[in-house]
Each structure stands twice: as C-alpha cells, then as structure tokens.
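Incident log, support desk, overnight shift.

02:14 A customer reports that sequence design results differ from what the structure should imply. Their input is reproduced verbatim below. On-call engineer (initials T.W.) acknowledged and began investigating.
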C-alpha cells in the first residue's frame, strides 16, 4: 500500500446519534497527521455521483451535540451493482482519495467489503454505527446508548398513564433482526414481557402471564415488542390478545423514528470519538477491510469477512434474567 495522503469519510444506511462525533474524530485525527480529508455526502450514492466536500478542522466545529449526520446518509441500490462500484472507484481515483472510512451498519460494511474485494488499492476501514447494536464483532455500535435512553424515557412516561387508566400497553421499538433495544429497555423499565426476534412463539406464554398478573391486581402492564418479532409488530400482537383481556384497556404505541433522533449521550460521543480516532490510526498502520470495534473494553480490528458472515443476537442468560425479573 502506498503512502496515504488523502482520505474520504462517509456515513451510510440508517443515521445514528454520535455519527457526527465520529466524523469529527476522523477529520481532526487525519489533519493532525498531515492528511487531507474529503467528506462524501449521501453515503455510497455520493461516491457514485461525485458529491465530495473538502473538510477542514473548522468544518467539524460544534457538531458533537448534533444528532443525525452532517454528511447526510442514504441507502444505495446502485452501489450493490458492479457498474455502480466501478463508477465510485473512478470518482475516488479522480479525487485522488487514497483510503476511506465508512460509518454505518451491516449493509454499509458489506458494501465496503464488496468494494475492497474488487479494488485492492483503496483501503476501507469501517466504524460500527447502528442504534440496533446488532453488528457482529463489537460489543457496541454508535447510537445505541442514545436510542436506548430515548426509549426508556418514553416508556417511563407511558407507564404513568397506563397505571392511571388500568391499561395494557404494547410498545414497539426498533430491532428488525435483533432485540437489543427491546431487551435492555424492557429490563430498565420493568416491562412485564419483552418480545424479541431471538425468542419464538411468545404469545401463548403472554396470555398465561397476563392472567396471573390480573389475579394479582396489577394496575398496568407494559409489553415491549421489537419490530422484527416473529409474531408480528405491536399492533398484530395486541390484536391476538385483546379479546382475552377485556378487563384491560389495550393500547399500542409505536415509537418509530424518535429513537434515531436527539443529541447523542456522553457515552455515544466518547465512543464515536474513539472509533474515529482509531479508524485513522488503523489506515496509517496499513490496515484495510476491517471494522474498528469494542470487545471487553478493548479496541479490536474485525475483518469485514467475519462481520457479514456472523449474526449477533441477545444472549440466552439475559433473556432468562428478564423472565425472572418480570415475575
């Protein structure tokens, strides 16, 4: 690999609070080492369409507290094609970009792996950005802590009204393929049941649990449902049980995209800053086709090939603990 003089940085896929902190760390670490930095707007679409922006130290001033991403983001179907990646490569070469830092989730890192398999002379390093926290190889992804706290705040408020009106609330949170937000928010909020993709056929058990809870004169019940649960979303599950529990006023709340927004937490800001710093250091150390991750509190370099082959799921002991604590 030749000496790196200019790097690009982009955010791709779903936005996550803390992405701006990672961008800031990439830009300032690179400039410290005497490198030029180019921001690639709108993710891989921007790479294909040549949406490049020179980044200076002042370009990333006062962005730590901002949610979303100043570089914008998108999901690119064209980048999934050989022709799309070929055009992206041509634009990177034209701009004289020697390396790229990609901030995003599984799909974004899969795209980076495909590109690197075809074009070895431009190294890519990834940073995990996903509020679902479902990226294999890292204990933590940017945005998860902020999203989790947003859910907890909302559920705490919903419980107040649920208790006042003897209501049974089904609250849907994000988590298409993994139930980390649902599980951890459910434990933190004392949810009576938690529906996650990792556990199948939970509705029958829920009916038994709610019947016992009614006999114990519980004034409210909060059920957390991950959007990817095999029983369906919160609306579908509520429909399946509402006729069995006419004693409760059954309601559904879908938290939706409020989970993605808001100022990042202190933990997200610090973690994202670490990811950005170590991503640039990895490139300068001739690393490529790896993601920067946290494992047991330590920085690790995880090969793209391992990330896209493996699935990260909520661990069984935590599921068991949540069941016990809801009794």
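02:41 Re-run completed on a clean worker. Output:
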């Amino acid at each position: 690999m030749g000496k790196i003089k200019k790097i690009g940085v982009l955010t791709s896929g779903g936005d996550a609070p803390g992405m701006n902190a990672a961008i800031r760390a990439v830009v300032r670490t690179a400039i410290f080492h005497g490198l030029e930095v180019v921001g690639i707007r709108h993710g891989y679409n921007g790479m294909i369409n040549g949406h490049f922006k020179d980044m200076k130290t002042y370009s990333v001033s006062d962005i730590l507290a901002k949610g979303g991403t100043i570089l914008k983001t998108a999901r690119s179907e064209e980048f999934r094609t050989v022709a799309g990646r070929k055009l992206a490569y041509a634009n990177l070469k034209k701009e004289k970009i020697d390396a790229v830092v990609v901030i995003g989730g599984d799909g974004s890192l899969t795209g980076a792996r495909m590109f690197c398999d075809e074009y070895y002379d431009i190294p890519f390093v990834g940073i995990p950005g996903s509020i679902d926290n479902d990226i294999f190889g890292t204990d933590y992804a940017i945005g998860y802590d902020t999203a989790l706290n947003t859910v907890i705040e909302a559920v705490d408020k919903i419980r107040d009204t649920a208790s006042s009106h003897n209501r049974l609330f089904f609250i849907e949170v994000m988590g298409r393929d993994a139930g980390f937000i649902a599980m951890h928010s459910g434990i933190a909020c004392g949810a009576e049941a938690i529906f996650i993709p990792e556990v199948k056929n939970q509705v029958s058990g829920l009916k038994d649990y709610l019947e016992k809870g009614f006999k114990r004169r519980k004034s409210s019940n909060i059920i957390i449902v991950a959007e990817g649960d095999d029983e369906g979303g919160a609306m579908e599950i509520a429909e399946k049980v509402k006729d069995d529990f006419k004693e409760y006023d059954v309601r559904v709340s879908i938290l939706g995209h409020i989970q993605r927004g808001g100022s990042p937490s202190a933990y997200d800001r610090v973690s994202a800053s670490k990811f950005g710093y170590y991503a640039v250091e990895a490139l300068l150390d001739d690393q490529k086709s790896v993601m920067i991750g946290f494992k047991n509190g330590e920085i690790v370099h995880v090969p793209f090939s391992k990330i896209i082959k493996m699935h990260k799921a909520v661990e069984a002991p935590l599921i068991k603990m949540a069941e016990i604590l809801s009794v």
